[in-house]
Write a structure and sequence with these properties.
Helix content is about 85%, strand content about 0%. It has about 140 residues and is mainly alpha-helical.
């Protein structure tokens, strides 16, 4: 049986555009610009993926610490004592747990914001470079 070969894998845009001989069009420049676009997208995706991995790792660490804290709190509450003392102890535990949860949430939000800012910064930088390249190409074509 004959092996299937995808004809699009051997497709050379630069060669095809070069054969058209379009005047005042820098085919190499267009291809180079698109390569830079794809590189910027790949880099932004890499940063976003690394950021997501760091966030997931931190969430796992927070979950493990929370489980250990709950176990410790349950042991502390299980000790003998007056009901008023246990109630005060439970209120203190609830307060510290809430404060820790809010601190963890803030930390995760900052991690997400940092990752998003880095990834979007790469894309924004490439957009600005691309606009400069278009301006330069237009100026060249006028000459």
């Amino acid at each position: 049986m004959a092996e299937f070969k995808n004809p699009f894998l051997d497709f050379d845009v630069q060669k095809m555009m070069g054969e058209f001989k379009i005047p005042n069009v820098d085919v190499d420049g267009i291809v180079a610009a698109h390569k830079k676009n794809f590189d910027a997208i790949a880099q932004a995706n890499q940063i976003a993926a690394e950021g997501m991995q760091a966030i997931l790792k931190r969430q796992s660490e927070i979950a493990q610490a929370s489980i250990a804290e709950v176990q410790s709190n349950l042991q502390a509450i299980a000790t003998q004592g007056a009901p008023e003392e246990k109630l005060a102890q439970q209120a203190a535990i609830a307060k510290s747990t809430l404060e820790q949860a809010l601190a963890n949430l803030k930390e995760l939000q900052e991690m997400v914001a940092k990752s998003n800012a880095e990834a979007s910064g790469i894309i924004n930088k490439r957009i600005m470079e691309s606009l400069d390249e278009v301006k330069t190409a237009i100026e060249k074509s006028k000459k």
